[in-house]
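Tokens for Peptide-binding protein. Go.
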Amino acid sequence: MTSSFEFPAYPVPRLSDAERDRALGQLREGAALGKLSHDTFMRRMELALVARRSEDLAVLLADLQTREGPLGAESPWTHRLFGWVGRASAVSVGVRRAWQAERLPKLLLPHPAAGPLRIGRDPGNGLRLSHDTVSRAHAELSLRDGVWLLKDLGSTNGTTVNGRRVTGVAVVRVGDQVGFGRMSFRLTAG
């Protein structure tokens, strides 16, 4: 009888770093191809990092196997097919974004002599947005040296320009999509 502090008498084959690296690569590729959800990918990565035997890794990768063999060993045809599908998907995403941008409410840039336009939920702002995701003092739009600048004022839910979060100040132009929390607008000139 062995105590919990003794090692077993039979040798347990140690998992090689190369085997673990191959498995991690297959998991990354499976997630990139949409075969694993983010949560499943993260959990399997954790399990792969602590796995002790090759059989443990095989269980984690079993549903990622293709007819041609393990993930990553697809035929050139399968690789081309994934490329075509990816490009077609990118086109549909671009069309969807363009369609949504045209349907956004317009935000008219203020007259240059009016000074900075403060945006937020507070009634004292030049543009009051009464939405739960907009902070009291959310952002400020101003003109400096002929360039429009959008500054986030430390909002909780963020300010975005064309889908990218503003940290500090961002240059904006007519046609840009700006967001304050979950409210979005398309900038237009008067």
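The chain has two domains: 13-67, 106-189.
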